[in-house]
């Protein structure tokens, strides 16, 4: 007869239990380390109105869940009704009393952004937080990458300016730009057509660098107001559209199967990825912190060029022309 107990005894007397527990500990420690820092603040923001662009999936959706749970009224600015409604239902499934609505906008289309801003102005007297999260990462299948620059940089640029009058009505308006580690690899060549790139990597890095340069510059322009401007890097996050686009490039099922354990081990979940954004949104002590770059809930040094005031001013002036912002909009 099969003797379970003597088998079990010989197992427990062997090295296996030690090896297995060491293995599990190493795996858990690695996951914990690469998962990044959780928002150290438990502050609530009851009744505050927060706009999250691209809130239908990934990091934006994870942020929306965290913020509705802390009492915020969240406006998901999405480009697709069905996806928006799906996200809305997903939030309400986890919290029946969550205060959340969807509004349509295409961040790559400047006219659509102006429309969206009009709609918001008609319905709201003030906005407390604007999270510029919508973004795309180009794929090699494309032959030009200007949409990346428009979506990740020009769109948030215009939207931020159009929302300034409403943000100024808040006691402490906050604008948060979702940047990326990739901005360190970005190059800004302000001669000629600076939105052009020849690879998706270049386009993504450039758009995020421009966004980060701006964050610092606009923060200086609005120093005397109660509005703060910061950018954050979420880290490397899986289960997002970005990751799908990036990883589906020409990989076979077998390749995917072999990278999956590494992805699982080293990349953040959207919930882990959104923690710095949540922290910047809710933490009361940050009410005067502006023009900074955050990663893992801490201020970090961004790429060097971000501190170059002349580059920033040149970029700012060129961008105002491209998005056709008149001085009227900027003053507000
Ligand atoms: N995942 C990462 O590892 C990583 C790393 C660094 C930075 N980031 C940044 O984090 C932010 C969120 O990214 P994610 O990883 O959560 O990616 P995601 O899952 O692809 O989410 C991006 C969201 O933006 C929306 N969006 C894209 N273009 C839009 C447009 N023209 N108008 C309106 N909405 C638009 C998408 O809408 P649809 O659902 O309709 O496509 C989607 O909901 C992005 O700014 C991204 O660059 C991500
Ligand atoms: C559910 O949402 C409400 C309203 O935003 C919030 O006050 C409450 O704390 C949330 N519940 C949980 C369990 O997070
Ligand atoms: C976000 O980036 C845009 C440029 O795309 C800029 O105009 C805006 O001021 C930035 N906001 C913050 C908070 O950095
Ligand atoms: C900033 O907020 C403080 C306190 O809420 C208020 O007294 C002050 O008038 C505000 N300043 C501006 C420029 O709105
Ligand atoms: C995949 O690889 C093939 C051949 O190497 C190439 O022709 C094709 O454009 C690639 N597809 C993508 C999406 O990069």
From TrEMBL:
Would I find Transmembrane among this entry's keywords? yes
Q: Supply the Gene3D superfamilies for this chain.
A: NAD(P)-binding Rossmann-like Domain (3.40.50.720)
Q: Which Pfam families match?
A: adh_short
> Which PANTHER family does the entry link to?
PHOSPHATIDYLINOSITOL-GLYCAN BIOSYNTHESIS CLASS F PROTEIN, PHOSPHATIDYLINOSITOL-GLYCAN BIOSYNTHESIS CLASS F PROTEIN-RELATED
What keywords is this UniProt entry annotated with? Membrane, Oxidoreductase, Transmembrane, Transmembrane helix
Coiled-coil regions, chain positions: none
Name the record gives this protein:
Uncharacterized protein
Q: So which domain of life are we looking at?
A: Eukaryota
Native organism is Phyllotreta striolata (Striped flea beetle)
Gene Ontology molecular functions: oxidoreductase activity
């Amino acid at each position: 007869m099969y003797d379970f107990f003597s088998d079990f005894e010989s197992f427990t007397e062997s090295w296996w239990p030690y090896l297995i527990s060491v293995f599990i500990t190493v795996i858990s420690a690695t996951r914990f380390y690469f998962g990044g820092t959780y928002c150290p603040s438990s502050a609530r923001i009851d009744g505050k109105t927060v706009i999250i662009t691209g809130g239908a999936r990934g990091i934006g959706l994870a942020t929306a869940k965290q913020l509705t749970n802390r009492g915020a009224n969240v406006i998901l600015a999405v480009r697709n009704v069905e996806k928006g409604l799906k996200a809305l239902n997903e939030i309400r499934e986890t919290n029946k009393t969550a205060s959340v609505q969807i509004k349509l906008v295409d961040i790559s289309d400047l006219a659509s952004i102006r429309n969206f801003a009009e709609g918001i102005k008609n319905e709201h007297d003030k906005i407390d937080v604007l999270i510029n999260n919508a973004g795309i990462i180009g794929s090699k299948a494309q032959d030009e990458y200007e949409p990346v620059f428009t979506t990740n940089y020009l769109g948030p640029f215009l939207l931020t300016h159009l929302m300034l009058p409403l943000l100024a009505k808040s006691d402490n308006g906050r604008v948060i730009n979702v940047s990326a580690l990739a901005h360190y690899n970005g190059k800004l060549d302000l001669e000629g057509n600076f939105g052009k790139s020849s690879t998706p990597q270049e386009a993504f890095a450039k758009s995020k660098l421009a966004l980060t340069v701006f964050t610092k510059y606009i923060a200086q322009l609005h120093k005397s107001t109660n509005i703060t401007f910061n950018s954050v890097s979420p880290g490397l996050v899986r289960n997002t559209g970005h990751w799908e686009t990036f990883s589906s490039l020409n990989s076979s099922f077998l390749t995917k199967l072999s990278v999956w354990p590494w992805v699982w081990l080293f990349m953040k979940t959207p919930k882990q990825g959104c923690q710095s954004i949540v922290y910047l949104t809710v933490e009361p002590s940050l009410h005067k912190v502006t023009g900074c770059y955050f990663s893992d809930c801490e201020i970090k040094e961004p790429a060097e060029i971000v501190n170059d005031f002349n580059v920033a001013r040149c970029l700012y002036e060129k961008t105002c022309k491209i998005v056709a912002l008149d001085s009227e909009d900027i003053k507000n």
